[in-house]
Design a protein that fits this description.
Helices cover about 75% and strands about 0% of the residues. By secondary structure, the protein is an all-alpha fold.
Length: about 70
């Protein structure tokens, strides 16, 4: 049993991916974007208005896309 746990813990790349995902979702702006687009498909300009934020939405969307949480159309 101990060997099984040890072999699962050794998969560092999986931890790195999970850490990156949690960091992404821990960012308030990115989390707000995720909630907004879960309700309705919105473009960057619409997100800027809906969330009352600056032009950083494009950067936030790029991060979400790189994490495969959103798709570009």
């Amino acid at each position: 049993m101990e060997k099984s746990i040890h072999s699962r813990i050794e998969k560092d790349e999986q931890y790195a991916e999970l850490v990156a995902l949690f960091k992404t979702l821990a960012d308030e702006a990115q989390l707000r974007i995720m909630f907004a687009i879960s309700e309705k498909e919105l473009c960057v300009q619409e997100l800027t208005v809906v969330l009352n934020v600056s032009s950083l939405v494009s950067y936030q969307m790029k991060t979400l896309k790189s994490m495969k949480l959103v798709k570009q159309r």
